[in-house]
Fold this sequence. Notes:
The protein is mainly alpha-helical. The chain has a domain at 124-420: di-copper center containing domain from catechol oxidase. It contains 14 helices and 13 strands. It has helices at residues 2-23, 33-38, 125-140, 167-178, 195-215, 300-307, 325-330, 345-353, 368-377, 395-398, 407-410, 415-423, 425-435, 440-472; strands at 40-41, 44-45, 48-49, 57-61, 84-88, 92-93, 99-100, 104-105, 111-112, 148-150, 161-163, 380-381, 390-391. The protein has a three-stranded mixed sheet. A two-stranded antiparallel ribbon has the order 2-3. Strand 2 (44-45) and strand 3 (48-49) form a beta hairpin. The longest helix has 33 residues, at 440-472. The structure holds copper (II) ion (CU). Copper (II) ion (CU) binds at residues 175, 190-191, 200. This is Tyrosinase.
Amino acid sequence: MDSFFKWFLLAFLQYMACLKAVDAQFPRPCTTVEALQTRTCCPLWNGSPCGFSSGRGVCAPHPARDLPKPIDYRVNWPRAFYDSVCTCWGNYDGFDCSQCLPGWRGPQCLQRHHVEKKEITDLTDSERETFLSNLHTAKDVQSDRYMILKSNDTTVDRNYEFQNTSVYNLYVWMHYYSAKSYAGSGNNAAHRGPAFVFWHRVFLLFIEREIRDLTGNQDFYIPYWDWTRTDNCNICTNKYFGGVRQDGRIDSASRFSQWKTICPFQESLGIICLNTNASEAAHLIRNPGKDPVFKTLPTAADVKDAMASQLFDTPPYDTTSKNSFRNKLEGFEIPSDSRRLNSSMHNLVHRYLNGTMSLVPTAANDPIFMLHHSFIDNFIYVAPNSTKLFLGTSTEKIQHMNNHKQLWKETKLPFEWKKPLQNQAQGWWLSAALVGVRGYEERREQDKQIDSLRQKKKERARETSSKTKRDNG
Ligand SMILES: [Cu+2]
């Protein structure tokens, strides 16, 4: 009896632990016991799941694919948790179809939303103050839409819990989690391959939209930092992101000195974002130019070298790719000048800042990350209503960044890098689910189905009306 009681107590405690895990809350409405048990993430909008009765979307089965072992929750996202998720129609977007696709606004998401981005040092005083204050709000205010996932061992069934997070820290977590290597490979979803550019674009579009919703400032956008204009971190001052002390900490006169980092370690696959040693890496650290190997920022000549690439990416579509625009931009393919660099372009900026920005899992904790990637994103754009992919840097081109529908939706991707992009698409799915943007192929497939349904409906209507005419005649 005694041992039975012990067993019972143990079972009861485990049950309670499970409850806590599921009770603690991804999309917040999908973290309830009911959503997790029914494996359905189709939140209500205006009274119906996915806003179905308002014509916004439908709760549909996620394309089923087997999950590999060991379970990596990110693969076929969010299959590990849900069988059904919202599929949004038209320009509707978001986990509950309550939002508009990036680049659209208005009650029916039919108005174009144009935002012209500026270089950070070109902002007026009031523009800069608004930007920085919106950023601090995002850092301070809890997201009421999302929670983040933590686990000390995902190989144990249901061993995870959801935690509250600020809007900015949610974004840090997304980058941290996507940058984790896949089991048995050095690859990850967001870097070291063709998805690099697009993953980070979706990422920026995501946080921009969240900050707009949070602050009500619909014109919020992430300015870019043009590091070719300077030979030092000209935004590492209290006017911008905080001056830097001798020890690498941010000057206490800057509000950024108060910013605490989250998920500061690159743990093994099964561990998700545990601040196992809270005393370390708590604050932002920068030591620009102090790493003897990465002393300088990339130059305008480096940009020119990358832009001269004829091909977006080349086999084997990784860090060893040669004559690849993507690999040059990312910074693994080094320009053949006399500087004997160990990394260039995007990577070099990260390493140059020498601190929070230099390590992939921690990098997004530093707000300079956004501005750096906003600049990287300038190098690739799609003109509205165009099917062609352009590489370019002029201001005229920069304004296109935010005013087109998803690149995936409008671009016919050149075949030679479409395939590897799909191979790296798990990153896309991760961001896709979190961001609420569907993958290109899936979306196109759905659009085709919807078109054919509409077509059939029209034909039927035509048949009925001609039949009525005949009957009346
Ligand atoms: Cu990144």
